[in-house]
Design brief:
This protein is an alpha+beta fold. Helices cover 38% and strands 18% of the residues. The chain has a six-stranded mixed beta sheet, sandwiched between helices. Strands 1-3-2 form a three-stranded antiparallel beta sheet, with helices on both faces.
């Protein structure tokens, strides 16, 4: 018996392919978010003409979002994950299959909040004529940390890749941490220590200790990035005074922890409130630097 062929969206429907790729990369997306990424200049209802055939072919399914009548978050089925597994635009990303609507609902709040931040960057890039596409925000990027005390992995909520087009062409990368005020402020601030450890980490061959000859070895992050990405914290989910205090705690960690202070001398660090990003754009003066002056500025000016 011949194997069952892998389902594919119509070859002529580029929106269908892009929708599948986006749902794969972000794990969960609402129809409104897909519309903003793919077809922002068409009526919002048109996106359903893209999604309906994908559902009928068994490539995607959805879960209802609690408290939002008629609001659904879409995710890949096993057949959908198989379909996109070898697509070049997703190279290096393993398609994630969410096992149930319940599992999708449990991860929806954090995932969709991250997409809100991404959409703020996307709208700003379109307004400025910069190069930043829907797939340029890569969620859940993992890097190994030194085999010492503490966590053994750094898991960034996202890494974004952004190119400013004018007046001078400049490429930016950033690690992004999304804070919905669901963890303690101290635990949030400790994430800076993980980034500082990754910044200084030089992997050693198994069974060897570092010595003078190893000092010229390649730092771990240099295997992935030409420059260490700036670190951006995006906060939401609480009243303004609470978010302001959490940003102050991030600044305090930067000032008090020697390793983080060292990171800040080489890497721009900043924090902003998500609602400010959505209102004024990431280029607006909405970012508080985590070192030095507290004067707000745009994210590329940190």
């Amino acid at each position: 018996m011949s194997p069952t062929p892998t389902l594919q969206p119509p070859t002529g429907d580029t929106h269908a392919r892009r929708a599948l790729a986006l749902i794969s990369q972000y794990r969960l997306l609402t129809s409104t978010q897909l519309h903003q990424m793919l077809t922002p200049h068409t009526p919002p209802r048109k996106i359903h003409n893209v999604l309906a055939p994908l559902r009928e072919d068994g490539l995607i399914t959805h879960t209802a979002l609690g408290g939002k009548k008629g609001m659904h978050a879409y995710f890949l089925t096993a057949a959908g994950a198989q379909t996109v597994a070898d697509w070049p635009e997703l190279r290096g990303r393993t398609p994630t299959t969410i096992q149930s609507s319940t599992a999708a609902s449990l991860r929806a709040a954090h995932t969709l909040t991250g997409v809100r931040a991404h959409l703020a960057f996307l709208a700003d890039a379109r307004a400025h004529g910069d190069e930043y596409e829907p797939l340029d925000w890569v969620p859940e990027v993992t890097h190994r940390l030194p085999d010492t005390v503490g966590e053994d992995r750094l898991i960034a909520d996202a890494v974004l890749h952004y190119t400013v087009a004018s007046p001078r062409r400049l490429q930016y990368r950033a690690f992004v941490e999304i804070d919905r005020t669901t963890m303690s402020s101290e635990r949030l601030a400790r994430k800076l220590i993980s980034y500082a450890r990754f910044h200084s980490y030089t992997p050693q061959p198994a069974g060897r200790r570092g010595n003078i000859a190893d000092q010229g070895a390649m730092l771990a992050w240099q295997r992935f990035y030409p420059r260490f990405p700036r670190v951006l914290f995006i906060l939401t989910g609480a009243a303004r005074p609470t978010l302001t205090r959490r940003i102050e705690d991030l600044r305090q960690m930067t000032a008090d922890h020697e390793l983080v202070t060292g990171l800040a001398t080489h890497v721009p660090l900043g924090a902003a409130v998500l609602e400010d990003l959505e209102a004024h754009g990431p280029h607006g003066k909405v970012w508080t630097p985590l070192a030095g002056t507290t004067e707000p500025r745009g994210w590329t000016q940190l």
